[in-house]
Amino acid sequence: MPNLTSKELSAIEDQLSKEQLLVKKYKCYACMTNDPQIKASCEQIASKHLDHYNRLLSHLS
What is the pTM of this model? Predict the structure, then answer.
């Protein structure tokens, strides 16, 4: 993989922060609801954003 420019690195770091925030929010939403379908959807969305986070993080390694 080619070296990342400082602008690309900054964009990835910003997106990492956003993905991390989305994971936290959807996990929180899952805990707040009593509806099993909404809970499952929120957990699935949190998992998807965690996957995005990990994929972005792999570009920094």
Answer: 0.87
